[in-house]
Design brief:
Sulfatase_N; alpha/beta; Alkaline Phosphatase, subunit A; 18 strands
């Protein structure tokens, strides 16, 4: 027979309370000892171990049609990019925010459309002052706050402040062969407001495009040597005696692989890294190394694309070697479309179309100017061999990275950034973006919503026909509207047939400009006035050549 001992309820409550108190006290002591002794916070480490490394590879002037996995008729061998695509997701409707270098890079790192900055058209130069505004949140600064090591390797092209020998800073607005202000710079002094000032722990690379002086490597805030000679990679200017353009892509590739090797162990312990890897290629000067010269059988540009493909292969091999490929998000894209400097005629003669089925090329408002290759590979979370038709913009890196690490984006950051993480994970059943805004080298605007694309200018807005300042645009409609479902090559302007669409999209674009953002949130100021119609009006009133020039090519 079992004996049961009964206690009064008050005594039971007292015993339970006493035991809970002692247990709580013990927990507090253990926590205090753990913190005081410097023992690791294993819970936090476990959470960070799930955050991926992120490598963002930004090719320079590379067309959508230059990768076989995206263009079945591509005549260039791109085995590593094809492998990256087959092992991840291809975004078929991805766009740079601008059709030229500097503006796109601004958008990538800030999540803000470039035309909201002080740069309303064109690009910066090698000695231009910083473009990213002080105290603006960036992708690296945000990730750094969440435990990431951040590095930028390659072509910066967002301005930095070079000290002059006589005091002050270089204020180059454009390259001037006569004055060549590069010789006025004191290269022994630290460079101010460069990549390290916007959240990067480490920087190695060049200040701007490889055809813009000064021709020196920069590590963090220091020029690596003093220019003593003049060299010309299209534009002549101050150069370090050992600097050669052909060496840049191999050197920045080696540096990126070196960082992966150095940071792999920490990444496995919950200290992930973000590497922003903006290439100098296949932009001019088009200089593939001897190992790649003639490999494509087409021309030097296509050889250079093959070398870019090899660079991607080296990065992927480094991740595999270090055992961190599974939880590393690798994104490959380009800052804009292929440049006419690549010699389209030579490529067309060999049946290669770098712009694929899209009209135009770099600098244009047409699709060939800003529709870019975009591949996302993340074995841990992206299903291999998948595609996404989601409309996306390169400004979306900011919100996507924030979504990945669980960061809250403040109202004054990432104003034009939308997370594409749901698309990467094949969980997006509806459009993630309401619309996307495009911008040409001359500052012409375009807005895309669903299958409609409105362009607020006559002609290309850039360098292809009809070209502002070269071809007669006076008799063309001031705006263009294309139905991309039925006319992805933008051959038939249907603005006259759909005035209601023109009105709707113009109103939406104006609201984006007025609110200082295109995403939900509190309105923000733009940096300077935003005039949506200025470039289009300017194009129609430029010096008009003979009208037969337009009719001849129509």
């Amino acid at each position: 027979m079992q004996t049961v001992t009964c206690f009064p309820q008050r005594q039971v409550n007292t015993v339970i309370t006493d035991r809970l108190h002692r247990f709580a006290t013990l927990c507090l002591i253990l926590i205090t000892i753990s913190v005081g002794s410097g023992l690791p916070d294993t819970t936090h480490a476990a959470e960070k171990a799930n955050d991926p490394n992120i490598i963002y590879i930004l090719a320079d002037d590379m067309g959508y049609g230059d990768i076989r996995a995206l263009n079945p008729e591509c005549k260039i061998a791109t085995p590593h990019l094809d492998q990256l695509a087959h092992g991840g997701m291809i975004f078929t409707d991805a766009h740079s925010s601008s059709s030229v270098c500097t503006p796109t890079r601004y958008g990538v790192l800030t999540g803000r459309y470039n035309w909201r900055s002080r740069l309303k058209s064109g690009v910066l130069w090698g000695l231009s002052r910083r473009l990213i505004e002080p105290d603006r949140e960036t992708v690296p600064s945000m990730l750094k706050e969440h435990g990431y090591y951040t590095a930028c390797v390659g072509k910066w092209h967002l301005g930095m402040d070079w000290s002059l020998k006589k005091g002050g800073f270089a204020t180059e607005a454009a390259y001037n062969k006569k004055t060549n202000p590069g010789w006025e710079v004191d290269y022994a002094k630290p460079i101010q407001n460069g990549p390290n000032s916007v959240g990067f722990d480490y920087f190695f690379g060049i200040s701007a495009s490889l055809d813009m002086p000064p021709y020196v490597y920069i590590e963090n805030d220091r020029s690596q040597g003093i220019p003593t000679v003049t060299k010309a990679f299209f534009r002549d200017g101050p150069a370090h005696k050992d600097f050669e353009a052909i060496d840049v892509l191999p050197r920045i590739t080696d540096k990126t692989v070196e960082i992966i090797d150095q940071r792999a162990a920490a990444a496995k312990q919950g200290k992930p890294f973000f590497i922003y890897f903006p290439l100098n290629a296949p932009h001019t000067p088009i200089l593939p190394t001897p190992a790649w010269q003639g490999k494509s059988g087409i021309n030097a540009y296509c050889d250079f694309v093959m070398q870019v493909d090899d660079t991607v292969g080296q990065v992927m091999q480094a991740l595999k070697k270090q055992g961190i490929a599974e939880n590393t998000l690798v994104i490959f894209t380009a800052d804009n479309g292929c440049s006419p400097a690549a010699n389209f005629k030579e490529m067309t003669d060999k049946d290669h179309q770098p712009s694929y089925q899209f009209r135009g090329h770099k600098a244009d408002i047409y699709e060939g100017g800003h529709r870019v290759p975009f591949i996302a590979n993340w074995p841990a979370r992206i299903k291999a061999g998948t595609h996404s038709d989601q409309l996306t913009c390169l400004t979306d890196l900011f919100a996507t990275a924030a979504d990945i690490v669980g960061a809250k984006v403040p109202d004054d950051a990432g104003e034009d950034s939308v997370s594409i993480l749901p698309a990467m994970e094949s969980k997006a059943d509806t459009p993630l973006r309401e619309a996307a805004v495009h911008h040409s080298i001359r500052g012409a605007f375009s807005i895309r919503k669903d299958h409609w694309k409105l362009e607020l200018c006559p002609g290309s807005g850039g360098w292809s026909f009809p070209k502002p300042g070269k071809d007669n645009l006076s008799e063309l409609p001031a705006i263009q509207l294309y139905d991309l479902n039925n006319d992805v090559s933008e051959q038939k302007n249907v603005q006259a047939e759909h005035p209601e669409v023109v009105k709707e999209l113009t109103k939406l674009l104006q609201s984006y400009a007025d609110r200082g953002r295109s995403t939900p949130g509190k309105s923000q100021p733009n940096t300077g006035e935003v005039d949506l119609f200025k470039a289009g009006k300017s194009a129609q009133t430029m010096k008009k050549p003979a009208k037969k020039a337009l009719k001849k090519k129509s």
